[in-house]
Write a structure and sequence with these properties.
Layout (H helix, E strand, L loop, with lengths): L37 H12 L20 H7 L5 E2 L3 H7 L10 H10 L3 H15 L4 H26 L7 H4 L13 H18 L12 H15 L2 H12 L26 E5 L12 H5 L16 E2 L2 H4 L12 E2 L2 E2 L5 E2 L5 H5 L2 E2 L17 E5 H16 L4 H13 L13 H15 L6 H7 L3 H14 L18 H6 L11
Antiparallel strand pairs: 1-3, 2-8, 4-7, 5-6
Helix pairs in contact: 1-5, 1-6, 5-6, 6-8, 6-9, 8-9, 9-10, 10-14, 14-15, 14-16, 15-16
Amino acid sequence: MKKIKLLMVALSLLSMTGCQLEREDYTEISPDKFPTTEQDLRLAVNSLMYEFGTGYWNGEGIYSADCGGYQVISDMSSDDLWSCWGWESDNLYYHQWFATVTGNIQNHCYQNFAHYQFLSKARNTIRRIEASAAPESAKRLYAGEVKALRGWMGLYLYDMFGPVPVASDDVLDNPQTFTYLGRATDEEYDNMMETDLRGAIDVLPEKASARGRMTKGAACMILLKYYMIRGKYDKAETLARELMEMEGSVYNLQPDYNYVFSKEGVGNDEIILQVGCSSSSSWVANYMTAEVLPADMPWTEKSEGWGGYVMPWAFYNTFEAGDARTKNIVTQYTNKNGVLMTKDNSAQLSYGPLPLKYGKDDTMSGAFSGIDLIVYRYSDVLLTLAECINRNQHQPTAEAINLVNRVRHRAGLQDLSAEATASYDAFNDALLTERGHEFYMEGLRRQDLIRFGKYVELANQRIDEANENGKAYFKIDESHNRFWIPQTFIDESKSNIKQNAGY
């Protein structure tokens, strides 16, 4: 067996684990002969998409609905999501983590960082596709899709940890050589992200061949998000405008906010990127509803609720009266025994209302919902462009204000007030509030709070409040804008991987 250290995994295109440190000896399919046909290319891409799935429990997929899933860990470490179960949710909500923390939160951090190996697997897949005997048109398409997937994973990793190790082609060409890699520089990471995603944008179709497949718009959106994290607002504005050119022909702002997340609205044209879900399989179901739904709440005859996640009352109370986006945020309900449940007699509601963002699915079996898990939407393009204009012009323009008002009007609200548009800072504050109300439970809140300089501030406010009620939590600083690198990976790299500052 040919061994390889850390990021230098000799990856088979058919391997779906991404965590092995040894090359498997396939007897039926040789990596030297695969892929050769267009069907082979599609299978190779499909195997890579597995890591972006919902999984079932304990974070098998990046978009798992448990506390290790990207959207949940992002929102639960912010101010718009909480779990009445306690467990690691307490650690996340109050930022009570450090490099040597133990328990589930340590496991989740390990699982998330371990996905760095995907970058090598995807790069090897791109090279095999480009060298295959398949038709050139198919090679361009599927290589482009893998480049978009690599960029997606690169964004996710950078957001959580900063730059991770990235193997060069020279290193990947020599899997028998033990190579201990350090983390890429920001400049090297920028080059990887821009090369892959620009390459994907150039060849991918505007409309997906099936739900969840990569498109030109999805690749644009991933790169847009990366630019926003990196503070490259001029480049971000250009990309946002490119996406807006697709309005009408590819993307639209749906008239009804709640329709976007409904069974009837699956595949609607506000969605730029989603994880395709099914109620017939545990590995591709949407579990967000089950995580929120109380066990005693009538929903559908076949549905099952685990009664965990809530929206903290403090966040809910920031919504304006009449905001249509609160329609599926449940503040009280009549249970299966006919008893009215409120925050006074419900343990779950005492923490906050129920963010049942995804609607009812009559095909839902137990905890398995078939409503697609949404990653990015067109309303995000509008609000991001408004933010870029404000940051680049150092003041809100009429165009920027109108973009925000479009989103507000869809929610049944009036135009922003004159006070909210009076200055750069006032408009930024209004944008942050609007984004919180528009994208709650979509995993964007952490990014937003960090970018607007509020992530640590709001966490310390929660910590102060908890300490006044008898806790003994430690205060945090800007180091918590990133998570820690698990010590296992540092040790295996012979300390070439450096820990994030502050840990």
